[in-house]
């Protein structure tokens, strides 16, 4: 008999049928009631064991974590909390789980402990829910762009360029690092390396994505990106997934419209598809908030927050306006910020971004027209000569979730900028070709997928929304 997923059993319309379910035991009470979960839903199915006709030896092996197969009749449950249960007639232990040793006990574990057991934490309610939501969100991403006719592009993971000019890259080499070949001046000779040049793991697929947008019109990427920045924060990963749409003929306003519509769509989609998981995560967060002092608790529950973002227009504010607000705000005047904002041109830190979003505007904010010298070389210079057509989207509890811009489409201006920043033209000859042959206004952005998952699940540490996080000093699993 083929097993049926627990999700399907629980939403079944006919009872009094013989069914088979396979899964992992969550709990076993009174030698009689098994709460069985197979990952298809957050909900367990109750399996009622006829303990009088089951051997003592088998009963002992029904422990938390064990894999079992149960066959029996699907009947309406008399117990509270579930609609159906299985009256077990046949029970088979597929894989034992030593109750003394299995780390995921049916009790509250700290998130820290669960991170150390990332291979097993997915067997808990919270992580099962997070990972299902993550999966649905990524499907929503593809759905959104595919419905709009965007072409999905797989940009290279090994690159010869530093798209963000940030220099925070992981090197890719096959040279022996204890004794690499060297040229006359003693420098490592990358001509002898695998690719005949220096290569890195990509920090962004944008530059390659732009070349495709200038042929296919609307494209998006969705893939892993790598940053060797030593930011040990709850918002940074060394390996994260990024979604980067790029659209020919879009200006910065079109870009903001696209980003806002996209984010609202994927949240709506997930609210519709994951009601049980989100309800669970909503209660989890409410519970977690109770341990915080009243003043630090968020005013809205998770579900309220998600619905709020759907029904609110993101507030669009120029960098210059934001600086004025920050300069005059109480935490700045009282020197409560770690970085005091004195003048125009200052780079915003996450404390400033979060003040704007959480305290001042109390809604998602799109900041635009940043000073040119704190942003990447490829951004479109404004007529004022000192700001660029950049935009960052800031979210409550998260800070920056999106970074994007209208791109500098003018060949001469772009080359000037590269010269000023010491970016070699020979390295980006192919990128410059898009400006030499049929250049046009175009724009795009990058959304950090894990930051989106953080927002949607209400988790507070980015290590908890990716299966196996990579962070400084940690690459376990
Ligand atoms: O702002 P960033 O650096 O922009 C770019 O990479 C552009 N090339 C995007 C584009 O215009 N196509 O990164 C984009 C987003 C950030 O807003 C943030 O959400 C996320 O990527 N991000 C990270 N997420 C997790 N860990 C990190 N270390 C991240 N760095 C950036
Ligand atoms: Mg950014």
TrEMBL record:
<dbReference type="GO" id="GO:0006421">
    <property type="term" value="P:asparaginyl-tRNA aminoacylation"/>
</dbReference>
<comment type="similarity">
    <text>Belongs to the class-II aminoacyl-tRNA synthetase family.</text>
</comment>
<keyword id="KW-0436">Ligase</keyword>
<keyword id="KW-0547">Nucleotide-binding</keyword>
<dbReference type="InterPro" id="IPR004365">
    <property type="entry name" value="NA-bd_OB_tRNA"/>
</dbReference>
<dbReference type="InterPro" id="IPR002312">
    <property type="entry name" value="Asp/Asn-tRNA-synth_IIb"/>
</dbReference>
<keyword id="KW-0648">Protein biosynthesis</keyword>
<protein>
    <recommendedName>
        <fullName>Asparagine--tRNA ligase</fullName>
        <ecNumber>6.1.1.22</ecNumber>
    </recommendedName>
</protein>
<dbReference type="GO" id="GO:0003676">
    <property type="term" value="F:nucleic acid binding"/>
</dbReference>
<keyword id="KW-0963">Cytoplasm</keyword>
<dbReference type="GO" id="GO:0005737">
    <property type="term" value="C:cytoplasm"/>
</dbReference>
<dbReference type="InterPro" id="IPR045864">
    <property type="entry name" value="aa-tRNA-synth_II/BPL/LPL"/>
</dbReference>
<dbReference type="GO" id="GO:0005524">
    <property type="term" value="F:ATP binding"/>
</dbReference>
<dbReference type="Pfam" id="PF01336">
    <property type="entry name" value="tRNA_anti-codon"/>
</dbReference>
<feature type="domain" description="Aminoacyl-transfer RNA synthetases class-II family profile">
    <location>
        <begin position="131"/>
        <end position="467"/>
    </location>
</feature>
<dbReference type="InterPro" id="IPR004522">
    <property type="entry name" value="Asn-tRNA-ligase"/>
</dbReference>
<dbReference type="InterPro" id="IPR006195">
    <property type="entry name" value="aa-tRNA-synth_II"/>
</dbReference>
<dbReference type="InterPro" id="IPR012340">
    <property type="entry name" value="NA-bd_OB-fold"/>
</dbReference>
<keyword id="KW-0030">Aminoacyl-tRNA synthetase</keyword>
<dbReference type="GO" id="GO:0004816">
    <property type="term" value="F:asparagine-tRNA ligase activity"/>
</dbReference>
<comment type="subunit">
    <text>Homodimer.</text>
</comment>
<dbReference type="Pfam" id="PF00152">
    <property type="entry name" value="tRNA-synt_2"/>
</dbReference>
<keyword id="KW-0067">ATP-binding</keyword>
<dbReference type="InterPro" id="IPR004364">
    <property type="entry name" value="Aa-tRNA-synt_II"/>
</dbReference>
């Amino acid at each position: 008999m083929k097993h049926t997923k627990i999700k399907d059993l629980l939403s079944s319309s006919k009872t009094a049928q013989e069914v088979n379910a396979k899964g992992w035991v969550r709990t076993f009470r009174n030698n009689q009631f098994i709460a069985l979960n197979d990952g298809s839903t957050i909900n367990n199915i109750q399996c009622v064991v006829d303990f009088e006709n089951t051997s003592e030896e088998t009963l002992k092996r029904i422990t938390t974590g064990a894999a079992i197969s149960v066959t029996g009749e699907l009947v309406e449950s008399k117990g509270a909390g579930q609609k159906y249960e299985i009256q077990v007639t046949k029970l088979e232990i597929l894989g034992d789980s030593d109750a003394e040793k299995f780390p995921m006990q049916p009790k509250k574990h700290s998130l820290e402990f669960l991170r150390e057991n990332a291979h097993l934490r997915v067997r808990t309610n919270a992580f099962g829910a997070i990972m299902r939501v993550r999966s649905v969100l990524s499907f929503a991403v593809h759905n959104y762009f595919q419905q709009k006719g965007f072409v999905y592009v797989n940009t290279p993971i090994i690159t010869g360029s530093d798209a963000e000019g940030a220099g925070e890259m992981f090197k890719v080499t096959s040279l022996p690092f204890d004794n690499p070949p060297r040229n006359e001046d003693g420098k490592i000779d990358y001509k002898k390396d695998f690719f005949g040049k220096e290569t890195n793991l990509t920090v962004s697929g944008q530059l390659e994505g732009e070349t495709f947008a200038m042929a296919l019109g609307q494209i998006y990427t969705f893939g892993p990106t790598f940053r060797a920045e030593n930011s040990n924060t709850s918002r940074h990963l060394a390996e994260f997934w990024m979604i980067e749409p790029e659209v020919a003929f879009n200006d910065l306003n079109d870009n903001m419209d696209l980003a806002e519509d996209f984010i609202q769509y994927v949240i709506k989609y997930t609210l519709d598809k994951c009601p049980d998981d989100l309800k669970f995560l909503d209660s989890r967060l409410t519970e977690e908030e109770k341990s915080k002092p009243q003043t630090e608790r968020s005013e809205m529950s998770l579900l309220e927050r998600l619905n709020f973002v759907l029904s609110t227009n993101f507030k669009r504010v120029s960098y210059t306006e934001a600086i004025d607000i920050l300069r005059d705000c109480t935490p700045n005047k009282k020197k409560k910020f770690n970085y005091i904002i004195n003048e125009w041109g200052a780079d915003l830190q996450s404390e400033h971004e979060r003040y704007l979003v959480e305290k001042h505007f109390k809604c998602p904010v799109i900041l635009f027209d940043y000073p040119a010298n704190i942003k990447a070389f490829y951004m479109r210079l404004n007529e004022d000569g000192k700001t660029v057509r950049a935009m960052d989207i800031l979210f409550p509890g998260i800070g920056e979730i999106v970074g994007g811009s209208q791109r500098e489409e003018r060949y001469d201006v772009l080359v000037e900028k590269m010269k000023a920043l010491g970016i070699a033209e020979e390295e980006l000859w192919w990128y410059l070709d898009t400006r030499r042959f049929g250049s046009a206004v175009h724009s795009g952005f990058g959304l950090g997928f894990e930051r989106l998952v953080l927002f949607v699940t209400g988790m507070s540490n980015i290590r908890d929304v990716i299966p196996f996080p990579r962070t400084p000093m940690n690459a376990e699993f």
